[in-house]
Amino acid sequence: MKRSRDEASKVLGERMLQGWTMLGVSCPVEECYTPLVCNRQSNKMFCVRCNQYVLTEDELKQQQAEQKNAEEVAAIEKDQAETEARVEKERRRYVEQQFRLEEQAKQAGRMQELDHASEEAGCGIAPRGAAKRKIDMTAVQSSSDSDADVNAVRRQTLAALYQKMEALTNSLSPTDHSERLVSVARAVREIAEATQLLKQ
C-alpha cells in the first residue's frame, strides 16, 4: 500500500537515521518520484512511499532470466515426473500382464496334467470295462443256455402232462360211478393248472 507524501517523508528520515543512504535517483513508478534509499548491507534501492525494493535494469533482466530459468526447470521436472509416472504405469501393466500369462500357463499345465491323468485312467479302465463286458456276455450266454435247458424241461413236462390228461380222459366210460368221475376231473384240473404254470 502506497504511503502519503508526509508519511513517506517521515519514514525516509527514520531510515536515514538507521544508516540508509539517500540516492540521487527517484522511484520510477508514475506519480511517485520519491527519492530512493539504499541499505549498505543489501546494497538494494528501496522506495519508502511504495514500500518496496526497486530493481535496476540489469537486476530486472537478471530477475526475469532467473524466473524464466525457474519456469524451465519446473517444466522439465514436470515432464520428468510425467515420464516417470508413465514408465511406472507401463511397468505395472507389464508386471500384471506377466502375472496373468504365468497364471494362464500354470492353469494350462494343470489342465494338461488332468488330461494326461484322465487318459491314463481311461487306459486303465478300458480293459476292466472289456473284461466286464466279456463277463456279462458269458453270463448272458450261460443264462441263454440255462433258459434253453429250462424250456426243454418244460416242453418235456408239458408233453408228459398232456399224455397223462389224455390217458385219464380215455379211461372214462359211461359205466363209471360218480366218485371216479370226480377223481378224474380233479386230476385233469390239477394237470391243467400245472400246464398253465409251465406256459408262463
From TrEMBL:
Pfam family, one: Auto_anti-p27
Coiled coil: 53-93
Record keywords: Coiled coil
InterPro entries: SSSCA1, UPF0148_domain
Protein name (Swiss-Prot/TrEMBL): Sjoegren syndrome/scleroderma autoantigen 1
